[in-house]
Amino acid sequence: MQNTERAQRELESLLDFFVASGLDCFLEEEAVDSFALSEAAPARFAASPPVSTAPASPTNNSPSTARAPTVLQRPHDGPLKDFSKPLQAPAETAAPSAMSDAVVPDRAAIDMAREAARTAGSLDDLKACLEAFSGCNLKLTAKSLVFADGRPGSRVMLIGEAPGRDEDASGVPFIGRSGQLLNKMLAAIGLERGDVYIANVVPWRPPGDRTPTPQETEICKPFIARQIELVAPDFLVFLGAASAKSLLGVQDGIRRMRGRWMTYEAGGRQIPCLATYHPAYLLRSPLEKRLSWRDFLSLKTKLGE
Asked: Where is the composition biased (Basic and acidic residues) (predicted)?
């Protein structure tokens, strides 16, 4: 009797252990592959015969009032659907997408951009070419073309990477917080915004202010290159590493590039150029403003020579 009670207590303890461990149901002796069962379920469902909801006709062996079992279904539910097939929206109700005009950013798009930029004889022509250009998908998501700001023919041309939200809304580059800081940096060396010419390598805002892809940059590069030729500045200032890398073809980071003068060839001219920190970066890292101050002092020296 004692052995029986002991065995019962041990069994109860074992069951309590299983419940505490999360095992609250009987298990098979062999492991069940639930993933394989899930994959095979649609095929089994499709192969099963359809369930008829019509009442069975009476037979001689059954009373006339007997009816076949039916599937309970509300009248407005409509016919049974085959859920083994993926749901698809009706073609006639599909709304047209704005991305239906998207193009593949390949070599053909780059060649098209080069040809369009080459035919521009003035800045107004170049702006019109960009407005009519359909080879860059960023145009489909941007609100406006951010072409340039400032005075054409200025001695100094500043180039950033791409416009942001404020610039996209206004159509003017460097108009937000980073633009306000840039205005103060120019004023510190005796320049006003109207004394310089400001543009971006990419004239359309990327969605969510993400970094432009290399393909997007390559497509837009012929336009900024032609823009530099038409403005014909005495000095170029690259705001951030992205614009300097795109136009100079270098791979150095901004810490290695900034502070030293380089050259950019445009229209047979060797234009002195300088790379410095982007104003948006200076807003996040204010301690680096001292280095940008040195760069702008170097620009002021060049302008006075």
From this structure: 74-84
